UniProtKB/TrEMBL annotation:
Part of the outer membrane protein assembly complex, which is involved in assembly and insertion of beta-barrel proteins into the outer membrane. CDD domains: BamD. InterPro entries: BamD, BamD-like, TPR-like_helical_dom_sf. The gene is bamD. It is a lipid-anchor. PROSITE patterns: PROKAR_LIPOPROTEIN. Residues 42-235 form the Outer membrane lipoprotein BamD-like domain. It is found in: Cell outer membrane. It comes from the Bacteria. Part of the Bam complex. Belongs to the BamD family. The keyword Membrane applies. This is Outer membrane protein assembly factor BamD.
């Protein structure tokens, strides 16, 4: 029995070696063209070849071998595992649409499986990894937020939940940075009303981000330029209540003082509602 087992392991090793040798740098393309008979290999051997391609930073080739396991051995345990590995391999190669499709397929088929949280996390990363530049399409950021939220809400006890929360906060901050970028653009060109609309979005919708103090200061600048002193004073009052230690409050304080004004709530604009919420603790 031991001799048979030894010969079986040896035979498997020979096949694995044959697969590695036969599958040269053009292995994936050769296999697709039928030049390599993949049916002679076990799912374990094909899976190992996929891992080998990942180690060589050939994600798309790796994904092909993982997909072959699905095709040839659809009812094997490795077929399920290879599906999520396809998503990982494609993502590592920057093939985001393909990674997204593989991850979504896994989630659809195995929503309660132990790797489902990882598949959802990978799906979110296919959007998140493309939002590093402020000038990019913000639709990607919204999609990233939506998919990261699923990780947090559906798989709160998974090892990926904490990372998803951190990335969610960064993506949320990214949206605010886009509003600030546009608002500053308008402000530099003296388009004060358009600038105020952008800064208002940050104050009302992104008040927990790092951009809120600057948005309030820019509102002080814009309202002073328009001669709307009550609004400028109210914006500064909110800034002083929440972010008094920041440079933005000091800049606003100096601007008001130059105009003989002080930071206090005035009038009945939208800022007064924000100010009241701030005093009631809803802002914090």
């Amino acid at each position: 029995m031991s001799g048979i087992g030894t010969r079986t392991r040896l035979f498997g090793s020979v096949l694995a070696l044959a697969l590695a040798v036969a599958c040269s740098d053009n292995s994936a393309s050769d296999a697709r063209r039928g030049l390599i008979d993949m049916e002679q290999f076990t799912p374990e051997q094909i899976f190992e070849r996929g891992e080998f391609e990942i180690a060589r930073d050939r994600g798309t080739d790796a994904a092909f071998f993982f997909s072959e396991i699905e095709r040839l051995y659809p009812y094997s345990e490795l077929a399920k595992r290879s599906m999520v590995m396809q998503a990982f391999a494609y993502h590592s190669d920057g093939a985001y649409p393909e990674a997204r499709a593989a991850a979504q397929r896994y989630i659809d088929f195995y929503p309660a499986d132990e790797d489902a949280a990882y598949a959802q996390y990978l799906l979110a990363l296919t959007y998140y990894d493309q939002i590093d530049e402020v000038g990019r399409d913000q639709g990607l950021t919204f999609q990233a937020l939506q998919e990261l939220r699923k990780v947090i809400e559906i798989y709160p006890d998974s090892e990926y939940a904490r990372s998803a929360i951190l990335k969610f906060d960064l993506a949320f901050d990214h949206l605010a940075s886009k509003e600030m970028e546009i608002g500053r653009y308008y402000l530099r060109r003296d388009h004060y009303s358009a600038a105020i609309k952008r800064f208002r979005v940050v104050v009302e919708d992104f008040q927990t981000t790092t951009h809120a103090p600057e948005a309030l200061h820019r509102l002080v600048e814009a309202y002073l330029s328009l001669g709307l002193y009550g609004e400028a004073q109210t914006a500064a009052a909110i800034l002083g209540h929440n972010f008094q230690s920041t440079e933005w409050y000091q800049d606003s304080f100096n601007l008001l003082r130059e105009n003989g004004l002080e930071a206090k709530a005035q009038g009945s604009s939208w800022l007064n509602q924000v100010y009241r919420q701030t005093l009631q603790g809803k802002w914090l």
